[in-house]
Each structure stands twice: as C-alpha cells, then as structure tokens.
Amino acid sequence: MPGKKKSIIPFDREDMCYLCHSYKSYGNPMQVHHCLHGIYRKAADKYRLTVHLCVNCHVALHDRGVNDESLERLAQRTFENLYGHEKFMQVFGKSWI
Question: Tell me, what's the pLDDT at 76?
Fold first, then answer.
C-alpha cells in the first residue's frame, strides 16, 4: 500500500510471506495481516503490528487459527520491547503472553 509505514515486526518483508516464506508473484500476492485483530485492529495499525502473509497462510490463520496465537504474542513482545508493558496494557488492555 503506497504511503503505508513499514511494520515494526522484525523480519517482515512486503515481498515474502512471514510464515511460509513464499515470495510474492503474480499468482501469489501478499496480504497485510494485523497481528492483533478484531477490536484491536486500529491500534495494531497505528503501531504497525502487521505482517505480510500469502493468501494460503492468511486464510488458514483466519479460518482455522493457524499461527494466530504466536503472532499475537510476537506483536506484544515487539511492542513491549519498544514502549514497555505498561504502555501495551494502556493501549490494548489485554495480555497475550
């Protein structure tokens, strides 16, 4: 997305799936996944807690919960490394760790 700031999640790349490491191609587009979603999506977007996923991994995550908990924990750890636990609780009000 033009104008979007890069994710703060370590090793996230716009051209590669964060989970399966497949590369973006004509038949394999990347989608942005908010690691903290639902009611937390806007804050996750604001603090750039997103990763790029291929369609297959994104569907598996939302349909079956594959890797969902590990990405939630990763988002929390990444945020807390930068801003601290107290700020995380102020913003999100919930701990995934």
Answer: 98
